[in-house]
Structures are given as C-alpha cells and as structure tokens.
C-alpha cells in the first residue's frame, strides 16, 4: 500500500524584501495584493493571492521559498527523514503552529509548516 502523501499544499511562498514597507509599497500598493496580516516580530507580512488560499509572504528574514503545508510537522519530519531527508532546522513553534526545514536527498530544502494554532488574522 502506498503511503499517504506528506506534502499537502503550498501554504505560502516567501519573497525576500529589504524591509516590509518597501515590499508592501510594491506588492500591495502597486500590484494590488490585499494585506492579510503583518508581524513585526518575524519581519513578515502576508498578502492574498486571489485565486488560491496560498499566501504571498513578504519577508525581511527568510529566503525565497515555498512553505509546504503538512498535517503535523513532527510526523512529516519523521517520514521525510525515514525516506532519506536530513533535518536542517528542527521543529520550532511559530505563531500559527510549527515549522521545520529538511533537505531532501537532492539538496533541496523543504520548509514544512502546520497550522496547528490557526492562520494569521
């Protein structure tokens, strides 16, 4: 029997910006993306992508990357490690749930996120 897929959806795509105000001037004010939330403590702001639940997350602190939504980060990390991935950043509590980063056998970082405490509002 095939295993249940670990990666459920793309939760967000992070886009590095020099600072949130500059990023918001371009992506929200010039391109029309609606601001959903802003968190100064993480240096991030979430914008609506109108045809999906995937968010565009402007960040002053993280690289350009998709964040993969999983059911539970600890379980996903265990499954990925058993399949040959390595842990780059262990499971960490974040305001919306838990996050970890693993590297697949081909050198690709996978940002894993669960929304165990809910989405930003």
From TrEMBL:
PROSITE patterns: VOC. InterPro entries: Glyas_Bleomycin-R_OHBP_Dase, Glyas_Fos-R_dOase_dom, VOC_core. It comes from the Bacteria. SUPFAM superfamilies: Glyoxalase/Bleomycin resistance protein/Dihydroxybiphenyl dioxygenase. Residues 9-115 form the VOC domain. Pfam families: Glyoxalase. CDD domains: VOC (cd06587). This is VOC family protein. It comes from Occultella glacieicola.
């Amino acid at each position: 029997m095939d295993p249940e897929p670990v990666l459920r959806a793309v939760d967000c795509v992070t886009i590095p910006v020099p600072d949130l105000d500059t990023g918001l001037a371009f992506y929200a004010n010039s391109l029309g993306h609606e601001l959903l939330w802003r968190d100064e403590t993480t240096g991030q702001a979430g914008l609506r992508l109108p045809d999906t639940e995937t968010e565009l997350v402007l960040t002053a602190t993280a690289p350009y990357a998709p964040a993969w939504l999983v059911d539970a980060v600890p379980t996903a990390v265990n499954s990925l490690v058993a399949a040959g991935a390595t842990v780059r950043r262990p499971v960490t509590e974040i305001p919306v749930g838990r996050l970890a980063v693993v590297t697949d056998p081909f050198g690709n970082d996978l940002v894993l996120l669960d929304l165990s405490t809910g989405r930003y509002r």
